[in-house]
Amino acid sequence: MTSRRRNRPPHRTMLSLTIVCLIFVAIPAWADIVSGAVYGPDGTLLATKTFRVLQGGDKVVTTFTTDSSANFSVYLAPGRYTVRSENDDTLEGDIQGYPQPVRQDIRLRRR
Questions:
Q1: Could you tell me if 98 and 78 are in contact, meaning their C-beta atoms sit under 8 angstroms apart?
Q2: pTM (whole model) above 0.90
Q3: Which of 21, 93, 97, 104 is most exposed by smallest CB count within 10 Å?
Q4: Radius of gyration (C-alpha) of the chain in whole angstroms
Q5: Cα(first)–Cα(last) distance of the chain, in Å?
Q6: Domains (ranges, CATH) in the chain?
């Protein structure tokens, strides 16, 4: 009884390696998760709301939505960011990205 070993065609292996390399190039290795809760200007938790994360003025980096407990989780490169409510552009807060996971709450204020 002989076993037949099935080899993967070389073009499929190269395609797989190319895809893996592109994924690592597209995501900065120093970025990580920032998570916490979002509070309104009056201190209330803002559940099931959508927010924009901005850098350098009005450049939208990403968006996130809080869950039913007002918690969020977002992947950010190190740096300072502004967070604005999707529904009320006058609500603004700050967030900081680090090269490791961090928990930090966002406290919005009127701008």
A1: yes
A2: no
A3: 21
A4: 20
A5: 77
A6: 30-110 (2.60.40.10)
Summarize pLDDT for 57-110 with one digit per residue, the tens: 889 999 999 999 999 999 999 999 999 999 998 999 999 999 999 999 999 999
- Lookup: tokens for 52: 């924009």
SS (H, E, C) the chain: CCCCCCCCCHHHHHHHHHHHHHHHHHCCCCCEEEEEEEECCCCCECCCCEEEEEECCCEEEEEEECCCCCEEEEEECCEEEEEEECCCCCEEEEEEECCCCEECCEECEEC
Write the CB contacts of 106 (distance below 8 Å, at least 6 apart in sequence): 36, 37, 38, 39, 51, 72, 83, 93, 94, 95
Q: Are 69 and 48 in contact (CB under 8 A)?
A: no
In angstroms, the CA 110 to CA 96 distance is 19
Q: Is 75 in contact with 88 (CB distance < 8 Å)?
A: no
